[in-house]
Design brief:
It contains 14 helices and 15 strands. The chain is an alpha/beta fold and about 400 residues long. Among the domains are: about 110 residues, Rossmann fold, CATH 3.40.50; about 70 residues, 2-Layer Sandwich (Dna Ligase, domain 1), CATH 3.30.1490. It has a seven-stranded mixed sheet. A four-stranded parallel sheet has the order 2-1-3-4, sandwiched between helices. The longest helix is centred in the last third of the chain and has 19 residues.
Protein backbone atom coordinates (compact mmCIF):
# COMPACT_ATOMS: atom_id res chain seq x y z
CA UNK A 1 0.00 0.00 0.00
CA UNK A 2 1.34 3.42 -0.96
CA UNK A 3 1.99 5.72 2.02
CA UNK A 4 0.94 9.37 2.42
CA UNK A 5 3.37 12.14 1.51
CA UNK A 6 4.04 15.33 3.46
CA UNK A 7 5.28 18.23 1.30
CA UNK A 8 7.11 20.95 3.22
CA UNK A 9 6.67 24.46 1.68
CA UNK A 10 3.85 25.09 -0.80
CA UNK A 11 5.84 27.36 -3.09
CA UNK A 12 6.16 26.75 -6.82
CA UNK A 13 8.70 24.07 -5.90
CA UNK A 14 6.22 22.44 -3.56
CA UNK A 15 3.57 22.52 -6.27
CA UNK A 16 5.95 20.67 -8.61
CA UNK A 17 6.19 17.91 -6.01
CA UNK A 18 2.42 17.80 -5.50
CA UNK A 19 1.63 17.61 -9.22
CA UNK A 20 4.06 14.78 -9.89
CA UNK A 21 2.66 12.72 -7.03
CA UNK A 22 -0.96 12.98 -8.16
CA UNK A 23 -2.37 9.52 -8.87
CA UNK A 24 0.53 7.88 -7.03
CA UNK A 25 0.46 9.03 -3.41
CA UNK A 26 -3.01 8.34 -1.93
CA UNK A 27 -2.82 11.47 0.22
CA UNK A 28 -0.62 14.55 -0.26
CA UNK A 29 -0.53 16.74 2.84
CA UNK A 30 0.90 20.24 2.58
CA UNK A 31 2.82 21.92 5.41
CA UNK A 32 3.32 25.68 5.24
CA UNK A 33 2.71 28.39 7.85
CA UNK A 34 2.66 31.16 5.21
CA UNK A 35 -0.99 31.84 4.23
CA UNK A 36 0.10 33.64 1.04
CA UNK A 37 1.74 30.64 -0.60
CA UNK A 38 -0.27 29.62 -3.72
CA UNK A 39 -0.08 25.90 -2.91
CA UNK A 40 -2.13 26.53 0.24
CA UNK A 41 -5.10 27.02 -2.08
CA UNK A 42 -4.63 23.99 -4.32
CA UNK A 43 -7.46 21.47 -4.43
CA UNK A 44 -4.86 18.71 -4.66
CA UNK A 45 -3.32 19.49 -1.28
CA UNK A 46 -4.82 17.98 1.86
CA UNK A 47 -4.84 20.07 5.02
CA UNK A 48 -4.63 18.47 8.45
CA UNK A 49 -5.61 20.47 11.52
CA UNK A 50 -2.79 20.94 13.99
CA UNK A 51 -0.21 20.06 11.33
CA UNK A 52 -0.52 21.84 7.99
CA UNK A 53 -0.29 25.42 9.31
CA UNK A 54 2.58 24.92 11.76
CA UNK A 55 5.95 26.62 11.26
CA UNK A 56 9.15 24.58 11.36
CA UNK A 57 10.00 23.78 14.97
CA UNK A 58 9.41 21.38 17.85
CA UNK A 59 5.57 21.53 17.71
CA UNK A 60 5.72 20.52 14.04
CA UNK A 61 8.04 17.63 14.90
CA UNK A 62 5.53 16.30 17.41
CA UNK A 63 2.66 16.78 14.95
CA UNK A 64 4.49 14.92 12.15
CA UNK A 65 5.31 12.02 14.46
CA UNK A 66 1.69 11.89 15.61
CA UNK A 67 0.45 11.87 12.00
CA UNK A 68 2.94 9.14 11.04
CA UNK A 69 1.91 7.00 14.03
CA UNK A 70 -1.64 6.86 12.64
CA UNK A 71 -0.49 5.73 9.17
CA UNK A 72 -0.13 1.99 8.47
CA UNK A 73 2.91 2.71 6.28
CA UNK A 74 5.92 4.97 6.99
CA UNK A 75 5.09 8.52 5.87
CA UNK A 76 7.23 9.98 3.07
CA UNK A 77 8.66 13.44 3.86
CA UNK A 78 9.55 15.70 0.91
CA UNK A 79 11.19 19.13 1.41
CA UNK A 80 10.63 21.92 -1.12
CA UNK A 81 12.58 24.73 0.58
CA UNK A 82 16.03 25.16 2.11
CA UNK A 83 14.76 25.70 5.65
CA UNK A 84 12.73 22.50 5.35
CA UNK A 85 15.90 20.65 4.34
CA UNK A 86 17.68 22.05 7.41
CA UNK A 87 14.78 20.97 9.62
CA UNK A 88 14.83 17.42 8.22
CA UNK A 89 18.62 17.23 8.67
CA UNK A 90 18.23 18.28 12.29
CA UNK A 91 15.46 15.82 13.10
CA UNK A 92 16.02 12.87 10.74
CA UNK A 93 17.08 10.45 13.49
CA UNK A 94 13.92 11.17 15.50
CA UNK A 95 11.66 11.00 12.44
CA UNK A 96 12.85 7.57 11.40
CA UNK A 97 11.66 4.80 11.27
CA UNK A 98 8.05 6.07 11.33
CA UNK A 99 8.89 8.40 8.41
CA UNK A 100 10.93 8.00 5.24
CA UNK A 101 13.54 10.74 4.77
CA UNK A 102 15.94 10.81 1.82
CA UNK A 103 19.54 9.77 2.50
CA UNK A 104 20.54 13.13 1.01
CA UNK A 105 19.10 14.94 4.05
CA UNK A 106 22.28 14.72 6.12
CA UNK A 107 24.64 17.45 7.24
CA UNK A 108 27.58 16.00 5.31
CA UNK A 109 25.64 16.15 2.02
CA UNK A 110 22.64 18.51 1.92
CA UNK A 111 24.16 20.55 4.76
CA UNK A 112 27.23 21.25 2.63
CA UNK A 113 25.14 22.27 -0.39
CA UNK A 114 23.10 24.67 1.74
CA UNK A 115 26.15 26.50 3.12
CA UNK A 116 27.98 28.72 0.60
CA UNK A 117 31.30 28.55 2.43
CA UNK A 118 31.24 24.79 2.92
CA UNK A 119 30.06 24.29 -0.67
CA UNK A 120 32.92 26.39 -2.09
CA UNK A 121 35.44 24.61 0.13
CA UNK A 122 34.16 21.17 -0.90
CA UNK A 123 34.30 22.13 -4.58
CA UNK A 124 37.93 23.09 -4.05
CA UNK A 125 38.67 19.73 -2.44
CA UNK A 126 37.00 17.90 -5.34
CA UNK A 127 38.67 20.04 -8.02
CA UNK A 128 35.33 21.42 -9.25
CA UNK A 129 35.63 24.81 -10.95
CA UNK A 130 33.19 27.34 -9.47
CA UNK A 131 33.20 31.16 -9.49
CA UNK A 132 35.33 32.49 -6.65
CA UNK A 133 33.16 33.39 -3.65
CA UNK A 134 34.55 35.21 -0.62
CA UNK A 135 32.98 36.29 2.65
CA UNK A 136 35.35 39.15 3.49
CA UNK A 137 36.08 40.20 7.05
CA UNK A 138 38.40 43.11 6.26
CA UNK A 139 39.57 45.47 3.52
CA UNK A 140 42.56 43.15 3.01
CA UNK A 141 40.14 40.33 2.11
CA UNK A 142 38.48 42.61 -0.46
CA UNK A 143 41.86 43.44 -2.01
CA UNK A 144 42.81 39.76 -2.13
CA UNK A 145 39.51 38.97 -3.87
CA UNK A 146 40.16 41.68 -6.47
CA UNK A 147 43.61 40.29 -7.21
CA UNK A 148 42.22 36.77 -7.68
CA UNK A 149 38.92 37.41 -9.50
CA UNK A 150 39.08 40.97 -10.82
CA UNK A 151 35.98 42.79 -12.01
CA UNK A 152 33.15 42.84 -12.86
CA UNK A 153 32.03 41.10 -9.70
CA UNK A 154 28.89 40.68 -7.61
CA UNK A 155 28.36 42.26 -4.19
CA UNK A 156 25.54 40.57 -2.24
CA UNK A 157 24.37 41.31 1.31
CA UNK A 158 24.69 38.42 3.74
CA UNK A 159 21.47 39.56 5.39
CA UNK A 160 19.12 40.77 2.64
CA UNK A 161 16.56 42.60 4.74
CA UNK A 162 19.25 44.66 6.48
CA UNK A 163 20.66 46.11 3.27
CA UNK A 164 17.48 46.32 1.15
CA UNK A 165 17.14 50.08 1.66
CA UNK A 166 20.80 50.84 1.03
CA UNK A 167 20.73 48.82 -2.19
CA UNK A 168 17.65 50.73 -3.36
CA UNK A 169 15.47 47.65 -3.58
CA UNK A 170 18.02 45.50 -5.42
CA UNK A 171 19.29 42.15 -4.16
CA UNK A 172 22.88 42.80 -5.31
CA UNK A 173 25.24 45.24 -6.97
CA UNK A 174 27.47 44.56 -9.96
CA UNK A 175 30.79 46.34 -9.49
CA UNK A 176 32.08 47.00 -13.00
CA UNK A 177 35.61 48.18 -12.13
CA UNK A 178 37.99 48.08 -9.14
CA UNK A 179 37.22 51.75 -8.44
CA UNK A 180 33.51 51.02 -8.56
CA UNK A 181 33.94 48.15 -6.07
CA UNK A 182 35.89 50.40 -3.70
CA UNK A 183 33.15 53.06 -3.88
CA UNK A 184 30.47 50.45 -3.21
CA UNK A 185 32.38 49.13 -0.20
CA UNK A 186 33.10 52.61 1.19
CA UNK A 187 29.86 54.46 0.44
CA UNK A 188 27.17 51.74 0.59
CA UNK A 189 28.49 48.75 2.48
CA UNK A 190 30.88 50.15 5.06
CA UNK A 191 31.50 46.87 6.88
CA UNK A 192 33.10 44.23 4.59
CA UNK A 193 31.75 41.43 6.79
CA UNK A 194 28.20 42.42 5.79
CA UNK A 195 28.55 41.19 2.19
CA UNK A 196 29.53 38.31 -0.06
CA UNK A 197 31.82 38.93 -3.03
CA UNK A 198 31.47 36.65 -6.04
CA UNK A 199 33.20 36.39 -9.37
CA UNK A 200 30.84 37.33 -12.21
CA UNK A 201 30.62 35.12 -15.28
CA UNK A 202 29.87 37.40 -18.25
CA UNK A 203 27.17 36.72 -20.81
CA UNK A 204 23.37 36.74 -21.15
CA UNK A 205 21.06 34.76 -18.86
CA UNK A 206 20.26 32.40 -21.74
CA UNK A 207 23.79 30.99 -21.25
CA UNK A 208 22.60 29.52 -17.94
CA UNK A 209 21.80 25.82 -18.17
CA UNK A 210 20.31 23.59 -15.50
CA UNK A 211 19.97 19.95 -14.59
CA UNK A 212 17.19 18.21 -12.67
CA UNK A 213 19.04 15.30 -11.08
CA UNK A 214 17.66 12.18 -9.42
CA UNK A 215 20.26 10.24 -7.45
CA UNK A 216 19.36 6.83 -6.04
CA UNK A 217 19.05 6.44 -2.28
CA UNK A 218 21.86 3.88 -2.24
CA UNK A 219 24.25 5.49 -4.69
CA UNK A 220 24.53 6.56 -8.31
CA UNK A 221 22.65 9.08 -10.41
CA UNK A 222 19.65 7.56 -12.12
CA UNK A 223 18.61 10.37 -14.47
CA UNK A 224 19.30 14.00 -15.40
CA UNK A 225 16.85 16.24 -17.24
CA UNK A 226 18.49 19.28 -18.82
CA UNK A 227 17.08 22.69 -19.68
CA UNK A 228 18.03 26.29 -20.38
CA UNK A 229 17.02 29.43 -18.53
CA UNK A 230 15.49 31.76 -21.09
CA UNK A 231 14.63 34.54 -18.64
CA UNK A 232 15.07 35.30 -14.95
CA UNK A 233 13.46 37.43 -12.30
CA UNK A 234 14.95 39.66 -11.05
CA UNK A 235 16.46 40.28 -14.45
CA UNK A 236 19.92 38.76 -14.97
CA UNK A 237 20.44 37.73 -11.32
CA UNK A 238 17.39 35.86 -10.10
CA UNK A 239 15.41 32.65 -10.34
CA UNK A 240 14.17 31.33 -13.66
CA UNK A 241 10.91 32.83 -14.86
CA UNK A 242 10.97 31.02 -18.23
CA UNK A 243 12.84 27.72 -18.58
CA UNK A 244 12.81 25.34 -21.58
CA UNK A 245 13.97 21.74 -21.84
CA UNK A 246 16.89 21.12 -24.17
CA UNK A 247 19.15 18.13 -24.78
CA UNK A 248 22.50 19.13 -23.25
CA UNK A 249 24.70 16.03 -22.98
CA UNK A 250 27.66 17.85 -21.42
CA UNK A 251 25.48 19.37 -18.69
CA UNK A 252 23.85 15.99 -18.00
CA UNK A 253 27.22 14.25 -17.72
CA UNK A 254 28.79 16.93 -15.54
CA UNK A 255 25.71 17.11 -13.30
CA UNK A 256 25.83 13.38 -12.70
CA UNK A 257 29.58 13.39 -12.08
CA UNK A 258 29.42 16.29 -9.60
CA UNK A 259 26.38 15.03 -7.68
CA UNK A 260 28.02 11.61 -7.29
CA UNK A 261 31.26 13.27 -6.16
CA UNK A 262 29.33 15.06 -3.42
CA UNK A 263 27.72 11.77 -2.39
CA UNK A 264 24.25 13.25 -2.60
CA UNK A 265 21.07 11.13 -2.73
CA UNK A 266 17.60 12.15 -3.91
CA UNK A 267 16.42 14.96 -6.23
CA UNK A 268 18.49 18.10 -6.64
CA UNK A 269 19.11 20.89 -9.14
CA UNK A 270 22.41 21.91 -10.75
CA UNK A 271 23.08 25.22 -12.44
CA UNK A 272 25.87 26.14 -14.85
CA UNK A 273 26.79 29.19 -16.91
CA UNK A 274 28.96 29.15 -20.02
CA UNK A 275 32.09 31.24 -19.46
CA UNK A 276 33.52 32.58 -22.74
CA UNK A 277 36.85 33.26 -21.02
CA UNK A 278 37.25 29.58 -20.09
CA UNK A 279 35.23 28.28 -23.06
CA UNK A 280 33.20 25.90 -20.93
CA UNK A 281 30.19 25.84 -18.61
CA UNK A 282 31.07 26.50 -14.97
CA UNK A 283 29.10 25.25 -11.99
CA UNK A 284 27.16 27.98 -10.20
CA UNK A 285 25.32 26.00 -7.52
CA UNK A 286 23.59 22.79 -6.52
CA UNK A 287 20.23 22.97 -4.77
CA UNK A 288 19.76 20.22 -2.18
CA UNK A 289 16.13 19.69 -3.21
CA UNK A 290 13.88 20.14 -6.23
CA UNK A 291 14.12 23.66 -7.65
CA UNK A 292 11.48 26.17 -8.69
CA UNK A 293 11.21 24.94 -12.30
CA UNK A 294 11.11 21.19 -11.44
CA UNK A 295 7.57 20.79 -12.82
CA UNK A 296 9.35 20.58 -16.18
CA UNK A 297 10.21 17.00 -15.21
CA UNK A 298 6.52 16.10 -15.17
CA UNK A 299 5.63 18.19 -18.23
CA UNK A 300 8.54 16.72 -20.22
CA UNK A 301 7.55 13.15 -19.30
CA UNK A 302 10.37 12.11 -16.94
CA UNK A 303 8.46 12.24 -13.60
CA UNK A 304 11.60 12.28 -11.46
CA UNK A 305 9.78 13.25 -8.26
CA UNK A 306 7.28 10.44 -8.71
CA UNK A 307 10.17 8.00 -9.15
CA UNK A 308 11.81 9.39 -5.99
CA UNK A 309 8.60 8.92 -4.01
CA UNK A 310 8.37 5.31 -5.23
CA UNK A 311 11.90 4.61 -4.04
CA UNK A 312 11.37 6.17 -0.60
CA UNK A 313 8.04 4.36 -0.21
CA UNK A 314 9.54 0.99 -1.10
CA UNK A 315 7.32 0.65 -4.18
CA UNK A 316 8.43 -0.95 -7.48
CA UNK A 317 10.93 1.16 -9.40
CA UNK A 318 9.29 3.37 -12.02
CA UNK A 319 10.77 3.52 -15.53
CA UNK A 320 11.95 7.01 -16.51
CA UNK A 321 11.18 8.15 -20.04
CA UNK A 322 13.49 10.24 -22.19
CA UNK A 323 12.75 13.94 -21.82
CA UNK A 324 10.76 15.80 -24.45
CA UNK A 325 12.72 18.82 -25.64
CA UNK A 326 11.23 22.25 -26.25
CA UNK A 327 8.85 22.02 -23.27
CA UNK A 328 8.29 25.45 -21.72
CA UNK A 329 7.80 26.25 -18.02
CA UNK A 330 6.89 29.74 -16.92
CA UNK A 331 6.33 31.58 -13.65
CA UNK A 332 3.86 33.86 -15.36
CA UNK A 333 3.53 36.80 -12.96
CA UNK A 334 7.27 37.01 -12.36
CA UNK A 335 8.02 36.63 -16.06
CA UNK A 336 5.74 39.54 -16.89
CA UNK A 337 7.70 41.68 -14.43
CA UNK A 338 10.99 40.46 -15.96
CA UNK A 339 9.69 41.45 -19.40
CA UNK A 340 8.71 44.87 -18.04
CA UNK A 341 12.20 45.27 -16.56
CA UNK A 342 13.74 44.40 -19.93
CA UNK A 343 11.51 46.92 -21.65
CA UNK A 344 12.44 49.64 -19.19
CA UNK A 345 16.15 48.96 -19.76
CA UNK A 346 16.08 48.45 -23.53
CA UNK A 347 13.38 50.48 -25.23
CA UNK A 348 10.12 50.75 -23.36
CA UNK A 349 6.71 49.22 -23.92
CA UNK A 350 7.42 48.22 -27.51
CA UNK A 351 10.33 46.03 -26.39
CA UNK A 352 8.23 44.43 -23.64
CA UNK A 353 5.41 43.69 -26.07
CA UNK A 354 7.83 42.15 -28.57
CA UNK A 355 9.36 39.91 -25.88
CA UNK A 356 5.94 38.68 -24.80
CA UNK A 357 4.94 37.97 -28.41
CA UNK A 358 8.18 36.03 -28.96
CA UNK A 359 7.60 33.83 -25.88
CA UNK A 360 6.09 30.49 -26.92
CA UNK A 361 3.02 29.07 -25.31
CA UNK A 362 3.78 27.54 -21.93
CA UNK A 363 3.31 23.83 -21.32
CA UNK A 364 3.11 24.35 -17.57
CA UNK A 365 3.01 27.26 -15.15
CA UNK A 366 4.89 27.38 -11.88
CA UNK A 367 2.17 27.98 -9.31
CA UNK A 368 -1.13 27.80 -11.17
CA UNK A 369 -3.20 25.63 -13.48
CA UNK A 370 -6.57 26.01 -15.16
CA UNK A 371 -7.63 22.69 -13.64
CA UNK A 372 -6.82 24.09 -10.19
CA UNK A 373 -8.54 27.52 -10.42
CA UNK A 374 -7.94 28.72 -6.86
CA UNK A 375 -4.19 28.65 -7.53
CA UNK A 376 -4.64 31.19 -10.34
CA UNK A 377 -6.21 33.71 -7.95
CA UNK A 378 -3.67 32.84 -5.25
CA UNK A 379 -0.72 33.38 -7.63
CA UNK A 380 -1.76 36.93 -8.47
CA UNK A 381 -2.53 37.67 -4.80
CA UNK A 382 0.85 36.26 -3.77
CA UNK A 383 2.67 38.39 -6.34
CA UNK A 384 0.81 41.51 -5.16
CA UNK A 385 1.72 40.69 -1.56
CA UNK A 386 5.38 40.21 -2.46
CA UNK A 387 5.38 43.53 -4.33
CA UNK A 388 3.94 45.25 -1.27
CA UNK A 389 6.51 43.73 1.10
CA UNK A 390 9.26 44.68 -1.36
CA UNK A 391 8.11 48.30 -1.34
CA UNK A 392 8.10 48.23 2.45
CA UNK A 393 11.69 47.00 2.38
CA UNK A 394 11.04 43.51 3.72
CA UNK A 395 12.93 40.57 2.26
CA UNK A 396 11.13 37.33 1.36
CA UNK A 397 12.81 34.15 0.15
CA UNK A 398 10.10 32.32 -1.80
Amino acid sequence: MAPPALVFALTGTGMAVVRDLLGTAPRIVGIDADPWRPGRWSRHVHRVGGLSNLPLGEPLLRAVLDFAARSPEPTVLLPAADDACEWLIQHRDVLQPSCRVSEGMRDETAGVLLDKQRFAARCGELGIDVPLTVLPESDDDVRSFLEAAGTPCIVKPRSGHRWRQRLEGQKLIVAETPDHLRRVMDEIVGDPSAVVLQELIPGPESEITVGAVLAREHGGVRHVLTARKMRQFPRNFGSGSWVRTEALPEIAARSAEIVEAFGYHGPCGTEFKYDPRHRRPRLIEINARPTLWFDLCRAAGTHLLRAHYHELAGLPELPIAKQRDGVNWRYLTRDWIAIAQAGKAEGGLRTSWALEQQTPRSDTFCTMAGSDPATVVATFAHTAYQAATHLLGRERDD
